[in-house]
Amino acid sequence: MTEGAERKPARVVVADDQTVVREGIVMLLGLLPGIEVVGAAADGEEAVRLVAEVAPDVVLMDLRMPRCDGAEATRRIRAEYPGTQVVVLTTYADDESLFPALAAGARGYLTKDADGEEIVRAVHSVLSGDAGLSPSIQRRLLERLTETEARPAAPPEAPDGLTVRETEVLLLIAEGLSNQEIGRRLHVSTATVKTHINNLFAKTGLKDRAQAVRYAYGKGLVRPPAG
């Protein structure tokens, strides 16, 4: 008997707020070898409750859901039921989705264009103690690692309660970048950039980008060019 035949099916819960998508994933998983679907949840709260009830091996977790999003549900599951692993299965591969999910304890991350073979591989990878990441997500993590190593260290303490990301946006404003250029540099949407700008303006009392540039220099976050 082969090793694949000996391995017991992985017991999986599917969490996705879109009924058609959730039912489609359940149907697909039902056709795949080595997978047994033991429950389906319409949001993060229901996912956590199902984990408590049926103790699955893995939850395939969507991220953007009502009541309790996927990152928070992942955090709760990993804290309260460490025997259950989480693989994110989502439409979104941007940094604002990816890194909070991994920080919350997800061991795998796939986008919804993944095929059945990729899903099975990710599920069994996380059960073996490995990461279940799609090739595109692996590339993004390597890119982010390279960017982090190349980027100057952020100030030890950002002024006025700014977050690290808000400080990054401020520094890029000081470089003269537009919202679109900032979004490309940080691999986030323009709407996300606008949110960060609104937050940092509210915290600092700034009213426009010119004031933001003066503020960055005044706080020593940016140094005037030499000469």
Summarize the structure.
With 227 residues, this protein is an alpha/beta fold.
Q: Looking at the structure, what is the overall shape?
A: elongated
**Largest beta-sheet characterization:** 6 strands, parallel
Radius of gyration, in Å, reads 21 Å
Calculate the terminal CA-CA distance, rounded to whole Å. Answer: 75 Å
Beta fraction: 5-15%
Order of helices and strands: HEHEHEHEHEHEHHHHH
| Regions with little confidence, pLDDT below 50 for 5+ residues | 1-5
The mean pLDDT is 85
User: What structural class do helix, strand and pairing data support?
Assistant: alpha/beta
The counted number of beta strands is 6
- Helicity, as a percent range: 40-55%
The number of helical runs is 11
Quaternary organisation = single chain
Strand order of the largest sheet: 2-1-3-4-5-6
